[in-house]
Amino acid sequence: MARYAYVNGRYVDHHDASVHIEDRGYQLADGVYEVVGVRDGKLIDEGPHLDRLDRSLKELRIGWPISRDALRFVIRELMRRNRLHDGLVYMQVTRGVARRDHAFPTTPVKPSLVLTTKGTKHLDADTGPGIAVKSMPDIRWERCDIKTVGLLANVLAKQAARESGAYEAWLVDADGYVTEGASTNAWIVTQNDELVTRHTDNGILAGITRATLKSIADALQLKLIERPFTIAEAKRAKEAFITSATSFVTPVVKIDGEAVGAGTPGPVAHRLREEYVRFADAGELVA
Ligand code: PDD
């Protein structure tokens, strides 16, 4: 259990950590967040995550609450205080506290910054048994490229998946194509051994794990095509998998109750996860 959280300049007991009731994140989901994976005391892809935070903030015209260097220090200090070895660092920036009005506050407010950590089990190169996914309509807004805390559509899709016995929801757009998972990016390996994942635009979050995996796939000389695919194509694929900061590369063995390939994790997902773990292990030790 994490003992400390960071809230606007202070390391406080996690149990008592709180923000003001008129924080615009709380009332209007007017904020952004990042989740950075931690493995053996090493942050995975910290730089790209902070770059994406910068982009999300710019898109919403929210300023940095503290400098990037100061944030890097706070991340490390919180990890140290919470003795975090494996898990994640969560950071959230909202526009700040102001009397409720949809429009931006007219007088300057300081953005709110909150950080927490969460310990998880040590993820290794073994993919485990794989997961089931459930397809759900993608009912989100048209700026899914911004990592905002407005996640209600994702929450409802994930919950529907869990209630059906699946781990993740795969979101399907109005044209019948899979955009991404509720909190992960979606991939398949076709019968021609091509890796396919949807291109990035405002329809999905440009995953940091996705980007790293693209480089790994390239180094392994795997053929990668960025294009949309349907649930029917995914069901016919050799393999399917998801990627995210917290799931690394996790095989999808069932889609809407139907087995993908042999119904067990495949060699491509296994190889990519192995390489991803190797990449994560090479990071800088910070805790
Ligand atoms: N989710 N797509 C969505 C909608 C996500 O929320 C996430 C991340 C991803 C994968 O991005 P990355 O590889 O940068 O983690 C894709 C985080 C982990 C979360 O909300 O907990």
Give an overview in words.
This protein is of the alpha+beta class and 287 residues long. The chain folds into 2 domains: 4-119, Aminotransferase class 4, branched-chain amino acid transferase, N-terminal domain (D-amino Acid Aminotransferase, Chain A, domain 1, 2-Layer Sandwich); 131-281, Alpha-Beta Barrel (D-amino Acid Aminotransferase, Chain A, domain 2). The chain contains 7 helices and 16 strands. A hairpin with a 4-residue loop joins β10 and β11 (194-197). The structure holds N-(5'-phosphopyridoxyl)-D-alanine. The site of N-(5'-phosphopyridoxyl)-D-alanine has 15 residues, from α5 and β14.
Task: Give a nutshell description of this structure.
The protein has 287 residues and is α+β, with helices and mostly antiparallel strands. It has helices at residues 24-28, 46-60, 68-81, 152-163, 208-219, 231-236, 267-281; strands at 4-7, 10-13, 31-39, 42-43, 87-94, 112-119, 131-137, 168-172, 177-181, 185-189, 194-197, 223-226, 229-230, 239-244, 248-255, 258-259. The strands form two sheets. Strands 7, 8, 9, 10, 11, 12, 13, 14, 15 and 16 form a ten-stranded mixed β-sheet that branches. It has a six-stranded antiparallel β-sheet with strand order 2-1-6-5-3-4.
